[in-house]
Amino acid sequence: xxxxxxxxxxxxxxxxxxxxxxxxxxxxxxxxxxxxxxxxxxxxxxxxxxxxxxxxxxxxxxxxxxxxxxxxxxxxxxxxxxxxxxxxxxxxxxxxxxxxxxxxxxxxxxxxxxxxxxxxxxxxxxxxxxxxxxxxxxxxxxxxxxxxxxxxxxxxxxxxxxxxxxxxxxxxxxxxxxxxxxxxxxxxxxxxxxxxxxxxxxxxxxxxxxxxxxxxxxxxxxxxxxxxxxxxxxxxxxxxxxxx
Length: 244
Description:
alpha/beta, 244 residues, globular, seven-stranded parallel sheet
């Protein structure tokens, strides 16, 4: 049975991914900065008879990430799949963007992806097998009004994904990015009303806003043996809103 570690798994896309793995008989480590959210999702999974383990983690903190990996190994003994989903998006213009907020977003979204990946790599290298899936965003390609910090962090994830894929390919470890478009989660609802959010479906060829569950299939595929020859790729999941 595979072991998947999912960060940011306490809500939104991360929660959907954690539940998606559990439905495929994968043991899931539910890691989130909000302890209560992580344990709620753990309970959801356990109520279906599947195995899950909840952890509180601040992915921007190296000691916190180290402890997450240690606790995962204590519980399950290994890590087969790492999904770096943890991310934040406090909307603000560049003019009003403080360095403190810039550092917070880069620290969580980009540095967090680096720290978690670096910590998991030795475990995968020992087995010469593993899957790392980084959650980026369509904003990495198109930018985002009042989201320069977020777009920069997500573009950085794409560059990091390609570089790490090149390093790990000789060892049978794949690294890919999934780039959701506008998705109905708490992030856009932090700065958009329901009307503003759903009015944007008009620009999307498939004529609907993504739900978190729409992101699960591509992630599960990239984590599977069927994707063993796919690495260094950015998979856009946005209903055709951005075609790359």
